[in-house]
């Protein structure tokens, strides 16, 4: 996508007026370079309130397992809520909630303190104690944020599971984290209509033959849509019955800086999702710092809006922890961009006077497609900073974003980071950096990155493409994969030896030394900024009784970045039946729905191609590169390493269905 656009790019110098008020400064680069640990220690002390100061900034003696701000104690929820009230900012709006149905709720920091305290008391009354895990399977409503912060208050790590995941995916994640409580809603609003949600939890927790029961003792249910629900006596409890009557006071206990804050599952190269886990002090420090210097949040004047779903890391770091730690005022929107009309986002920007907007390239490209006239109908003049995250933003979308949303002047921060990094790593600083569309540019102050070639040597050829690595530990880094130390070392710290964190992204420099991210180099796809694993979708397809074998690739897609394309070999009897009945289309639909049921609607393939064979090397490895050529309608590349080089012709001739 971004591939060869990295030469001869125009640049945009920072506006001097913006620079004057910017939180980020050029001096930060120099200070961080001179003494990175001292730089981070200062960020931690300036931005976070510690109940016990730390005595060591970084302990890397057990690398790659890091400890940051060792000996320090803090409570993350106290930092995000109570201290703002104590500082006299209780009346400041924390959240302007905008519901799908047009219902709204204004939550000040004082309100937030009461709600979070009540929720913490409620969870404690259900037996949740420090160290217990709580699964959160909820839409974008205030109660979701209350629950996350209540967990942080109690020191009970949360595991938020995106509301688009299906029962099996939910079950696996609940079991892996050994969650005691699940918090959910009866249903969720989707494009103006209620859709059931608790029913998925019921299915996820239902007893299964040959499997032990799930560890869940309680399901706490918010009534959001008035959807009918089944009820398991003794297990299920209404939020209103348990939370509403609780005391509005709750004392937040200090936690060790390295106390686990949350687990968040993400796709890796194998089918089993990885529980990425983050801890307290370092994570919160880097979230607060980046939200201040990259988004340039000024809590007393800005209205910030991050459009990410709370089920992904962006929602964790830049809707919950970063902005709330900074005491910012933000918008939280429950619905989709086109409900009830395609101008809904711009209507929200106008209504609340949003000054900082953080979203994903896939959304920007969708708005481009819908037309310039839609945002033009609204007053977007409040916007002063724009952000992008999730995948490379192509220069064309960048220019459109600046022109049509940013009034031709707002700086755009293209922020590269990952679930694993916890917070922004590579990005321009608005007001400091000369912007170059399409490039995430440079590591932010305090972060060090490099691009290595196949042999692990730093890239020297300016035309070459290599692998992005991070060369120093950073405060918000993952502390591991939940329950799997080996997989952590192997996935991130072995490709180029144990000194380099391997990000899994291809990258190159341009002639200005700016970094261009070129997409994943492993079997992870990026669909609308969501990470999906080819292996996970393949195993979902193979679990269908009619499927013998499956291969999945991510093919370029104009709007979603990549789209899931599946190649499927049917079992003999299914093949016969399909031939006889000529029911290819129905079967394709059936397989797409099956993936939807197994993993969730986001994983449904755009295309399912039924093929007689798959291209394999002599050692039996599927050559996805060739399938990608087919999926992207290209001339098929080099087939010399195929065990049988006639296979590609068979595939092209034999494709019986397309959806
Ligand atoms: C991709 C999302 C290019 C990248 C925060 C990374 C990006 C993966 C950018 C992480 C960007 C994210 N430019 N690529 N600005 N931001 N990516 O874990 O491939 O959902 O490895 O975290 O998204 O996705 P994740």
From TrEMBL:
<keyword id="KW-0460">Magnesium</keyword>
<keyword id="KW-0067">ATP-binding</keyword>
<keyword id="KW-0007">Acetylation</keyword>
<dbReference type="InterPro" id="IPR020845">
    <property type="entry name" value="AMP-binding_CS"/>
</dbReference>
<dbReference type="InterPro" id="IPR045851">
    <property type="entry name" value="AMP-bd_C_sf"/>
</dbReference>
<feature type="binding site">
    <location>
        <position position="531"/>
    </location>
    <ligand>
        <name>ATP</name>
    </ligand>
</feature>
<feature type="binding site">
    <location>
        <position position="544"/>
    </location>
    <ligand>
        <name>Mg(2+)</name>
    </ligand>
</feature>
<dbReference type="InterPro" id="IPR042099">
    <property type="entry name" value="ANL_N_sf"/>
</dbReference>
<keyword id="KW-0479">Metal-binding</keyword>
<feature type="domain" description="AMP-binding enzyme C-terminal">
    <location>
        <begin position="536"/>
        <end position="621"/>
    </location>
</feature>
<dbReference type="InterPro" id="IPR032387">
    <property type="entry name" value="ACAS_N"/>
</dbReference>
<feature type="modified residue" description="N6-acetyllysine">
    <location>
        <position position="621"/>
    </location>
</feature>
<feature type="binding site">
    <location>
        <begin position="414"/>
        <end position="419"/>
    </location>
    <ligand>
        <name>ATP</name>
    </ligand>
</feature>
<feature type="domain" description="AMP-dependent synthetase/ligase">
    <location>
        <begin position="87"/>
        <end position="482"/>
    </location>
</feature>
<feature type="binding site">
    <location>
        <position position="528"/>
    </location>
    <ligand>
        <name>CoA</name>
    </ligand>
</feature>
<dbReference type="InterPro" id="IPR025110">
    <property type="entry name" value="AMP-bd_C"/>
</dbReference>
<feature type="binding site">
    <location>
        <position position="314"/>
    </location>
    <ligand>
        <name>CoA</name>
    </ligand>
</feature>
<feature type="domain" description="Acetyl-coenzyme A synthetase N-terminal">
    <location>
        <begin position="26"/>
        <end position="80"/>
    </location>
</feature>
<dbReference type="Pfam" id="PF16177">
    <property type="entry name" value="ACAS_N"/>
</dbReference>
<protein>
    <recommendedName>
        <fullName>Acetyl-coenzyme A synthetase</fullName>
        <ecNumber>6.2.1.1</ecNumber>
    </recommendedName>
</protein>
<feature type="binding site">
    <location>
        <position position="547"/>
    </location>
    <ligand>
        <name>Mg(2+)</name>
    </ligand>
</feature>
<dbReference type="Pfam" id="PF00501">
    <property type="entry name" value="AMP-binding"/>
</dbReference>
<feature type="binding site">
    <location>
        <position position="505"/>
    </location>
    <ligand>
        <name>ATP</name>
    </ligand>
</feature>
<keyword id="KW-0436">Ligase</keyword>
<feature type="binding site">
    <location>
        <position position="542"/>
    </location>
    <ligand>
        <name>Mg(2+)</name>
    </ligand>
</feature>
<comment type="function">
    <text>Catalyzes the conversion of acetate into acetyl-CoA (AcCoA), an essential intermediate at the junction of anabolic and catabolic pathways. AcsA undergoes a two-step reaction. In the first half reaction, AcsA combines acetate with ATP to form acetyl-adenylate (AcAMP) intermediate. In the second half reaction, it can then transfer the acetyl group from AcAMP to the sulfhydryl group of CoA, forming the product AcCoA.</text>
</comment>
<comment type="similarity">
    <text>Belongs to the ATP-dependent AMP-binding enzyme family.</text>
</comment>
<keyword id="KW-0547">Nucleotide-binding</keyword>
<feature type="binding site">
    <location>
        <position position="520"/>
    </location>
    <ligand>
        <name>ATP</name>
    </ligand>
</feature>
<dbReference type="Pfam" id="PF13193">
    <property type="entry name" value="AMP-binding_C"/>
</dbReference>
<feature type="binding site">
    <location>
        <begin position="390"/>
        <end position="392"/>
    </location>
    <ligand>
        <name>ATP</name>
    </ligand>
</feature>
<feature type="binding site">
    <location>
        <begin position="190"/>
        <end position="193"/>
    </location>
    <ligand>
        <name>CoA</name>
    </ligand>
</feature>
<dbReference type="InterPro" id="IPR011904">
    <property type="entry name" value="Ac_CoA_lig"/>
</dbReference>
<dbReference type="InterPro" id="IPR000873">
    <property type="entry name" value="AMP-dep_synth/lig_dom"/>
</dbReference>
